[in-house]
Specification:
Strand order of the largest sheet: 3-4-2-5-10-1-11
CATH superfamily of the largest domain: P-loop containing nucleotide triphosphate hydrolases
Strand content: 5-15%
Number of helices: 27
Number of domains: 4
Shape: globular
């Protein structure tokens, strides 16, 4: 049997690292789970080196058995890190130890690859602004610097790149494409439902997606994302090659990503596009009937309350049922045509409208239907699964040993909340001494962190401040933020529950601390703001949810993390409220199971922004006194790193000033 420990040691040695007890414990636990055919939840703190901790035993299994192991990540950043750094290092180590070199491949969804049919046929027929390279070039020549010209030049560059990828046998991966916008990429890619299929597409023999799947079918280790894992689960295992084991990295995001993948939306604009694409093949009466559904849906949305829809007699389900019936007739009239690509794509668009309308009209107990409104989208209907635990239990954990790993898996100090959310029940948990388990048996292990949180960080809970209200940040809270940012001389990451609060805090600090630079989300692209925050001293960055999990700023640039309030789900979030009610109706505690667990996860992620390296020092300032005063506060605190804790603001200010070398 291949020694995964030797592979891990070789990989760590190759990158000039040192043995880490947590990383070694993780590798042992992963190997044991694979061997025992059980499931494993591994909490591995930041700095553990968890990627190599699971890659070493995964590749050892590939060598020993010839079986395929899949790794699923949530973010493109980690996928890129694995592909470009960790996996090559691990493969070198395997070859060094065993003399064999397994094959690895990255597998992404269809829209992450360019489509030759779309790129060569001149774009989306219903968009009108870009009908072909010649028209784009002409528009670019007539105008100077306007949006059409910029978009046209962008699309021309993308099409040239696509042809180059086809010539050299590449995969036309979006991550490798020239700089582009979402609108530009839409001109050279295709939605999954509109794909003609490899046999019907005139360019099927050159298809980048098919080529990427061929590469994956030959691989021993496949790296994919949570979204494709969700599609694989929802469609009977058709999206991923057959595999014997699965590792889910960034597992704290799994439920959210699976929910997103299983959520459908419906707008009048979507129906209008599908109708207009179909008109050429419909008789006048049916075509007009389909177009009439656009206005019927718009009226139903306008009459709907901006909340969950539960009654079949409500305007939206009624309109969705009528739309479903018409869409069925249209799909039947379009027929099953394979020699006309435009007609085939129109049929796919109509079938998608049918599927979503049917799901909304059904108002199934396991679905949540609601309506929202935004300036960009207008009114939109959504339908999402009430719970994804059953899907994950049967279609993920029921298929073979699965490892879930993250820096945040114990909520309230226990694994059970995170396990339950993905379909692993408390009764399924295995005591290490209990022996064999059934197909859903799981273990949980916390391998710790290389950081000494009690020496490196302080958790300051501002007990003296008033509880958060609905009318923006209190004047005392704003003053507290300014004092903390002053003490840190900038170097602060402000994590706010709303854009309004972030803007309010930024405006206040700019007025009170004119010598410091206060950046706020929305001032520029997030990547640009993060770069400035990292590179420019005396700078603070304030923002909302995308900063809670997506920013890694080690060193002196970030010595203060400010959190304005406990991030409970919004009371007007229909899906979270429906999940809470379902737990209550079943006799459980919906607040603790849903709202508090959601908040604990985000708090752990937010507080985790402070200590990213063993040299980091600083303060997490929690400006919501409920963390100390409410009954649920201990559950939330137990989910955070083990910082030294105080409720004395003067202690926090003094600590920040000492970090700046001010001992007065």
């Amino acid at each position: 049997m291949t020694d995964h420990g030797a592979i891990l040691a070789a990989a760590v040695g190759d990158i000039g690292g040192e043995a880490r007890p947590g990383q070694q414990a993780m590798a042992e636990a992963v190997a044991a789970a694979f061997e025992a055919d059980t499931h494993l939840l591994v909490q591995a703190g930041t700095g553990t080196g968890k990627s190599l901790g699971y890659l070493a035993p995964a590749l050892a299994r590939c060598v020993d058995t010839g079986e395929v192991v899949v790794v699923a990540t949530a973010t493109l950043a980690l996928q890129a890190q694995l592909a470009n750094k960790d996996i090559p290092t691990a493969l070198d180590a395997v070859e060094e130890v065993t003399g064999q070199r397994p094959k690895a491949a990255i597998l992404k969804g269809r829209t992450n690859h360019a489509c030759l049919y779309r790129a060569r046929s001149g774009g989306d027929h219903d968009q009108g602004s870009l009908v072909g390279a010649g028209a784009v070039a002409e528009a670019a020549a007539r105008s100077k610097g306007d949006e059409v010209s910029r978009l046209g030049a962008e699309v021309l560059a993308l099409r040239e790149w696509v042809e180059g990828e086809a010539e050299r046998g590449g995969l036309a991966d979006r991550d490798d494409a020239p700089t582009h916008t979402a609108r530009g990429w839409a001109q050279v890619s295709i939605p999954t439902r509109e794909c003609l299929g490899v046999t019907a597409c005139p360019f099927g023999a050159e298809c980048f997606v098919e080529r990427s799947r061929e590469v994956a079918r030959e691989a021993d280790l496949i790296v994919t994302n949570h979204a494709l894992l969700a599609i694989n689960a929802m469609h009977g295992g058709t999206a991923l090659p057959e595999h014997a084991a699965l590792v889910v990295d960034e597992a704290h995001e799994l439920v959210s990503r699976i929910t997103t993948a299983a959520t459908d939306e419906l707008t009048p604009a979507v129906v209008d596009r599908a109708a207009r694409r179909s008109l050429a093949w419909l008789d006048d009466d049916l075509g007009m009937d389909f177009l009439d559904q656009v206005e019927s849906l718009r009226e139903a949305l306008d009459e709907s309350e901006l909340t969950r829809i539960t009654q079949a007699s409500a305007p939206l389900p009624y309109a969705a049922a009528a739309l479903r019936d018409v869409a069925r007739k249209v799909a039947s009239a379009l027929g099953k045509v394979t020699d006309d690509p435009e007609r085939q794509q129109a049929t796919s668009a109509v079938k998608e409208v049918f599927d979503v309308a049917d799901r909304i009209a059904a108002l199934k107990e396991q679905d949540v239907v609601w309506v929202t409104e935004s300036e960009i989208m207008g009114r939109t209907a959504y339908v999402a699964p009430l719970n994804v635990a059953g899907l994950l239990r049967e279609q993920v954990f029921g298929q073979g040993p699965t490892v879930l790993t993250s820096a945040t898996l114990t909520l309230g100090g226990a694994f059970e909340p995170a396990a339950g959310a993905v379909g692993l029940r408390a009764a399924d948990r295995i005591d290490d001494a209990s022996g064999a388990a059934d197909e859903f048996g799981w273990r949980g292990i916390d391998v710790g962190s290389p950081f000494d949180y009690r020496k490196q960080g302080i958790l300051y809970v501002a007990r003296r401040l008033p509880p958060p209200g609905r009318d923006g940040l209190h004047e005392k809270t704003l003053a507290e933020i300014a004092q903390l940012v002053w003490a840190a001389e900038g170097r602060a990451l402000g994590l706010f529950a709303s854009r309004r609060a972030a803007d309010q805090a930024a405006e206040y600090c700019r007025r009170e601390l004119p010598e410091l630079t206060i950046l706020c989300q929305g001032d520029a692209q997030l990547s640009e703001l993060t770069r400035r925050f990292l590179e420019e001293p005396t700078t603070a960055l304030f923002g909302t949810m995308s900063l809670w999990q997506g920013v890694d700023v080690p060193g002196e640039a970030c010595q203060l993390v400010i959190i304005d309030k406990i991030p409970f789900p919004r009371p007007d979030d229909p899906l979270m409220q429906a999940r809470k009610k379902a737990v209550d109706d079943a006799g459980g505690n919906g607040f603790m199971s849903v709202a508090a667990t959601h908040a604990a996860l985000l708090l752990a992620q937010g507080a985790g922004r402070l200590i990213r390296r063993s040299e980091d020092r600083g303060v997490v300032a929690m400006l919501d006194p409920r963390l100390d005063t409410a009954r649920y506060g201990s559950f939330l605190t137990a989910s955070l790193p083990d910082f030294w804790t105080t409720t004395d603001g003067d202690v926090a200010v003094s600590a920040l000033r000492r970090l700046r070398g001010d001992t007065d």
